[in-house]
């Protein structure tokens, strides 16, 4: 079969099966090849019998301008409008708009504008413009290895071909519907989550705080249907972080996040983290739910002690309370398992030779890495709990948006694989080893804690309050790391970071901390 003769038919199929692809996707070889491979699978059997996948993909690649520029007038219009302002970017070579005619303001001027127009809730000093894999570049063309991954959001790095493809495909179909109507990507993602987890049902929203807000409301509603009004208390843990809405900031048992926002909602109580006895005392007839991060993130990368989550499960069962795991930071493969709490299941099985029953939560909240870089939150729960919500009890305009769920679906399928999860453990061990070796030389850290690729280096007493200076030193040396409280350096690199990027990032961390150490000792003497 001569594919040349089939050109109009292929164009039509592209319109039907792939939708309009913006011009920037055309330039991306991997995205285009993947798209054409998928198109091949959707071809009528007759064509597939006549042409091999390889032949078809190569033909489409060779003719992609002809096939796609004419493929959809709308896409062409979008790309034409875009190319007026945007020069094509080659992230690796730094050949970008920064040095082009679009740079009407200097970086200093833009930073001054940002300082003037934004609320002073953050104090950033970088304007980031482009990215690829685990690398990011600022407006001046300076390269950084991203060891923060957008605070555990870009867990697959940046410009991920599969996510780019999902985004561009869906962008050509439908962007928003509200939850008054269904869309395919949201249904598929919810089904994937249900199939892969303890959960029977899913509620989508837009952020971690909203997922926790939904969990708190569901727990209260569930209690209200069967228990007296006294049983509405939510127990959370000192050092936790659950979000910035009024309810979730109240659940966040750290006064610094709450001060000035009083009066806070009632019905929250705080228990010392990892304190078995305190938990036994505090969970009782009044408890409606217990909410906990299996590894506290913002609170200092602090894992729950072995047995603590199971202890809470037992207490919740004893007192008819729900157990909520906030996996917003620790979930989506970050620790080497889909969820951080699953480590406890494994430890239980090891210690009791498989006899321990599974640790099953009632509710799990997710966000961050679920969206692969787009905003999404999800609350997962059991059938029994889900039935407490009736139509109208809770809602959201954007939650489950088709573009976001299309990308999230691609991210979920890529992360939730044995290869990705075992890679997390291997790379996590490399980071830990590197930090420990560095510590042998500099004695900066009291301990290095966490799991998989969610690691915190806790500063020893002598270096207290120096973490922000260390983070800045790392940034100046081309690697972005995070704080977790004033005394913990937090490392959350993309889970699929390449060996080369990981090595280079760790070398930059070493150089930054050695220079810092040297400068501190010099200024003290
Ligand atoms: C454990 C945990 N819960 C909730 C949140 C709040 O998520 P969001 O900022 O998306 O509202 C965060 C954010 O850092 C978090 O780490």
Task: Summarize the structure in words.
The chain has 525 residues and is α/β, with parallel strands linked by helices. The chain has three domains: 3-85, no CATH class; 114-159 and 418-525, Aspartate Aminotransferase, domain 1, CATH 3.90.1150.10; 200-399, Aspartate Aminotransferase, domain 2 (3-Layer(aba) Sandwich). It has 22 helices and 17 strands. The strands form four sheets. A seven-stranded mixed beta sheet has the order 4-12-11-10-7-5-6, sandwiched between helices. The chain has a four-stranded mixed beta sheet with strand order 1-2-3-15. A four-stranded antiparallel beta sheet has the order 13-14-17-16. A hairpin with a 2-residue loop joins strand 13 and strand 14. Helix 3 (29-41) packs across helix 10. It is globular. The model is unreliable at 70-79, 81-89 and 96-101 (pLDDT under 50). The site of pyridoxal-5'-phosphate (PLP) has 15 residues, from helix 12.
SSE topology sketch:
Blueprint: H1 7-18, H2 23-26, H3 29-41, H4 45-50, H5 53-62, H6 64-69, H7 73-85, H8 107-117, E1 128-132, E2 135-138, E3 143-146, H9 149-152, H10 161-171, H11 184-196, E4 201-205, H12 208-226, E5 233-237, H13 246-251, H14 255-258, E6 268-271, H15 276-282, E7 287-292, E8 295-296, E9 302-303, H16 308-318, E10 322-326, H17 342-351, E11 363-366, E12 377-381, H18 383-386, H19 402-415, H20 418-442, E13 445-451, E14 454-459, H21 467-476, E15 479-480, E16 482-483, E17 488-491, H22 499-524
Parallel strand pairs: 3-15, 5-6, 5-7, 7-10, 10-11
Antiparallel strand pairs: 1-2, 2-3, 4-12, 8-9, 11-12, 13-14, 14-17, 16-17
